[in-house]
User: Fold this.
Amino acid sequence: MSGRISRVREAMERAGLDVLVARNPENVLYLSGYWPVNGWSLAVIPRDGEPLLIVP
Assistant:
């Protein structure tokens, strides 16, 4: 996953974004390796710092 996060962070830098919040299940899976099977989940990727996964 670290390669994916690195690529996302590079794109965030180019776009001038400080944080990325993904809610779409496919995007959460891509960023975290977790498939949200029940309810909603969020993958939160800050440009600096640790990624966060919020699950029900």
Notes: The domain at 2-54 is CATH 3.40.350.10 (Creatine Amidinohydrolase; Chain A, domain 1).
